[in-house]
Amino acid sequence: MSSMESKIPEHRAFHPPASFARNAEVAGMDAYHALCNEAERDYEGFWSRRARDLLHWSKPFTTVLDESDAPFCRWFDGGTLNASYNCLDRHLKNGNAQKVALIFEADDGAVTQITYGELHARVCQLANGLKELGVRLGDRVVIYMPMSIEGIVAMQACARIGATHSVVFGGFSAKSLQERVVDVGAVALITADQQVRGGKNLPLKAIVDEALAMGGCAAVRAVVVYRRTGGQIEWVEGRDRWMSELVANQPQSCDAEPVDAEHPLFVLYTSGSTGKPKGVQHCTAGYLLWALMTMQWTFDLKPDDLFWCTADIGWVTGHTYIAYGPLIAGATQVVFEGVPSYPDSGRFWDMIARHKVSIFYTAPTAIRALIKAAETNADIHPKQYDLSSLRLLGTVGEPINPEVWMWYHRNIGGERCPVIDTFWQTETGGHLIAPLPGATDLVPGSCTLPLPGIQAAIVDESGVEVPNGQGGLLVVKRPWPSMIRTIWGDPERFRSAYFPAELGGNLYLAGDGAIRDEFTGYFTITGRIDDVLNVSGHRMGTMEIESALVAHPLVAEAAVVGRPDDVTGEAISAFVVLKRSLPSGDEALQLISELRNWVGSEIGPIAKPKEVRFGESLPKTRSGKIMRRLLRSIANGEEVKQDTSTLENPAILEQFSASGDSTSSRGV
Ligand code: PRX
Prior knowledge:
The protein is of the alpha/beta class. The chain is built from 19 helices and 30 strands.
């Protein structure tokens, strides 16, 4: 497991600026340790006090943590509450109806602001509209929307009536959408006519039509369509409803339905190492609690901050740190429709300067791409923009290389803003390991220490903790409120994927390798230990891509591996065996392009392999196991040094290496 090997320790450290520490939510390491000790001494009390004080309950909970059916845990049983009430009504009651909730910037730069009062009214109207369509408590609604105020309204409206939403990223294909609609058993779908990204209009409704025509979606009674561009779309009478017409005459108030603490707020699909994407099910109370607590701890949110998380609502970061966290915390946030490179790669810096963003949260892949752009075009270098409003920077989604961290710290943060590297996952609901900006000394490339109450550890393959300085598997020893509750419709997969018997059955296995610094105990994540790839911070299973490839009529067999990439972190390399003779020259190039597009239409453009290589068979052991290690070496352009004596067909390595020379180097 290469990802578990030790790395050269990083010794640069950055102390929290004194001015920052003075006013921080958690001020200094003593305060951090006090919180950790409080959780250690009285685990349930620690969470219970915060759940009681920070959330609005319709009925108070009677139990804190029920582990009787572990690993299926229940938090705050007996209590009822509503997520939308907590995110909106509370602020109205506190006199903040006029506070701006969302500053939406469209792809073309048009800006719309909406207050908490207005957002509340719109959420209520759509909630009433959904009720009119027959959507009820416990029903599932799929949301396939662009980044928009309406996307957030849709999520909040579902939460308001107790419907469980499942947001599907707008870049997924019709087939991926259909699979999710079927698996989650959606009764309604909310979408837009089109989405606009980087100056281009892209279809959404047409993909919905295609997905629903694939079958298995008979439960979908209604498709609500937000008119984003007015572009040409097909219309299915009796099923399709314009969002604007549905909400037009609805009252601007709608009672928020109190639901059980454990009621599924959402299901979000993510890739695992085997089979189809898993529907990660999150609850209401524990999830909201952690969304709010991490806004305060990790981002040190203050009432006059302007928060901007650049994620899409189709991913968990867009759930916790756009649709729920900032709203429950009563923050003002920027919501951005477009892409960082349009109209040029200064867009993020320009937006920070124009809106006076104070907390900026993005992914290392975006920073890497923008560094490249800034280095080649001085006009869009961050020093051309006034970034003095910033006071905190965050990163998420993949390891951040120390040099990228340094660039971000220096060029964007002006060496004054703490860079908060947040490690977490779709399954964890919110940050798990991250520095606290007013307390933790920062080390580039390390996510530092677990948040208070999170009992993270590193173990070997039998579940025994390893000493600091030695790599191993990242686990969490005790359940925490915002953790995944189950995999939708597949509790056994939940148990085996996250609580494997080999580790004793009671440790949450994150699926990442990690190492703790010998002296500081700081955590550094070394990457996935399973067959999950991380391309531009997007999580994808190699099996999913392999299945898509073999679904092509010409493909007999395929193996997919990741290889390091300067910008996207990892890139997808596909090794393909055709049902016909080896192609060469232009024919090979044409097939490569066809296969890439094929994967794009099977899964979505984010899954397109960066390179495709052809061979007459895959390198397998005599027992038939594909030797992925060898494929990784080939993809990396390395000489194959591993022992190949157990290979059935060693000559194939030569073939795949040569195939890369003739194809990928031409930039296909
Ligand atoms: O491998 C880790 C990586 O992203 C995975 C989780 O992906 P996903 O569920 O899509 O959620 C991404 C946004 C929370 C993890 O298993 N990852 C996430 N954050 C970091 C990271 N790797 C290193 N450092 C991080 N800060």
